[in-house]
Each structure stands twice: as structure tokens, then as C-alpha cells.
Design brief:
With about 220 residues, the chain is an alpha+beta fold. About 45% of the residues lie in helices and about 15% in strands. A five-stranded mixed β-sheet has the order 2-1-3-4-5, sandwiched between helices. The relative contact order is 0.09.
Length: about 220
């Protein structure tokens, strides 16, 4: 049955208008993005299939063009649309952090990092460079590694801090395993980076670990800085 044949109060678009986007399931939100399904499947059915195939929205967002196109009904056009939506979300959150202290809206920092790092199959080390008022100057991927290890060089991090004329930084990396607990190596690296950056008067405000769909783990909240 086509979605247009459903009772009006059960259709995703009508429900969103009446109840707000938060009332919809992941599959229903995807259905609105997809607009149409494929033969024998409604857009909601296709949305459910995508979530089941990738395991989560985060994994879906991190999918490559080839991975997404492997699903019947998806292709380069949908991949491009999805990337555009994700990039608009990232930019909106970045604007929020540039207009005021990044830590005035800690949820925005976590959401921003999840949009960049959650669902990646490889480990990435990331930095949010901040000015003296903790406003975002720039964000960038510093290092990329394998599933289990990233080589991070403190000297290169210091060079980047000086390049951006940063007063502070929020560090982040992901755990593709889905386990957010910091390892002893994570704690040691954070300490080494904190000491190296202190030499050029750059404060390390936090270090987040992004893993799976759980909230990014904060070193500052854990008392690990």
C-alpha cells in the first residue's frame, strides 16, 4: 500500500506538521527525505531497510556512495542529497558555536562531533580550535588511522594551533568499536598534548570520545584533564 493510501493522521509528513519532527521514528524521517519508495515498498519500508542494513542512522550517514548505492532504490542522487543535508547540519551547528562560547551550548559541541565522527569505520583524531572567548575558529581532522590505532604527533598539533592562532582547543577522536571508555593510551596522549600545547599558551578544554550512538564521553567530566 502506498503512503498516500494511509489514513492522513498516519502519514509521516502530516504527522510531522501536526506533532513535530521529534514525534517521528527514524524510518519515518528517512521516508520524508526519500519522498518515494520502490516497487513493493513504501518510503517508510525503504527507510526501515536502510536502518536495518547499516545498523543505525550514524552508520547510514557515514556510508560511502558505493555502500549506499548497494541498496535498491538508492543511488548517486540520494547520496548527494544526504551529504548536503548533513553538511547543512554541520554548518548550522558551527555557526552556533562561532556566535558564542562553544561551551555555552555543550549539546551543540557533542552533536557537531557526532555528525563528523560517529559511524566511521576508521579512527580519526579531530580538533575544534577556539579563540579566547571559546568561540569556534575552525574544525579539522588532524590524523586518520586504522580501526584500532591512530598515530598522533604532538608537534604537528602545536603547529596547527599556532597556524590558527588558537587560544584553546577541544580534542576528539572516535572509537569504531562502539566502546566509548578511554584507554590508558588515550589518557597518556591527552596528557602529552596538554603539556605540549601549554608551552604555546593553548588550553585543552576537553577531549571527547565518540563511539556508536551513545553520548560522546568527556574527559573533563570524568576528571581526566
Amino acid at each position: 500500500m502506498s503512503i498516500t493510501d494511509w489514513p492522513e493522521d498516519e502519514r509521516p509528513r502530516e504527522r510531522l506538521l501536526a506533532q513535530g519532527a521529534a514525534a517521528l521514528s527514524d524510518a519515518e524521517l528517512l521516508a520524508i527525505f526519500l519522498r518515494v519508495g520502490v516497487k513493493g515498498k513504501s518510503a517508510v519500508d525503504l527507510g526501515r531497510e536502510l536502518i536495518q542494513h547499516f545498523g543505525s542512522l550514524n552508520r547510514l550517514f557515514a556510508a560511502t556512495e558505493d555502500e549506499l548505492s548497494s541498496i535498491h532504490g538508492m543511488g548517486p542522487a540520494k547520496f548527494v542529497q544526504l551529504q548536503a543535508v548533513l553538511e547543512m547540519s554541520r554548518r548550522a551547528l558551527a555557526e552556533e558555536m562561532k556566535q558564542g562560547s562553544a561551551f555555552a551550548t555543550p549539546g551543540a559541541v557533542r552533536d557537531y562531533l557526532r555528525l563528523h565522527l560517529a559511524g566511521l569505520q576508521h579512527e580519526v583524531f579531530f580538533a575544534l580550535w577556539l579563540d579566547a572567548q571559546n568561540r569556534l575558529i575552525a574544525s579539522e581532522e588532524l590524523f586518520r588511522g586504522t580501526l584500532t590505532q591512530t598515530s598522533v604527533y604532538p608537534r604537528e598539533v602545536v603547529k596547527k594551533a599556532l597556524w590558527h592562532n588558537a587560544a584553546a582547543v577541544v580534542l576528539a577522536h572516535n572509537h569504531p568499536s562502539g566502546v566509548s571508555e578511554p584507554s590508558s593510551a588515550d589518557e597518556f596522549l591527552t596528557g602529552e598534548l596538554k603539556k605540549a600545547l601549554a608551552l604555546v599558551d593553548v588550553r585543552v578544554l576537553d577531549h571527547f570520545i565518540v563511539a556508536g550512538q551513545s553520548q560522546p564521553l568527556s574527559f573533563a567530566e570524568r576528571g581526566l584533564l
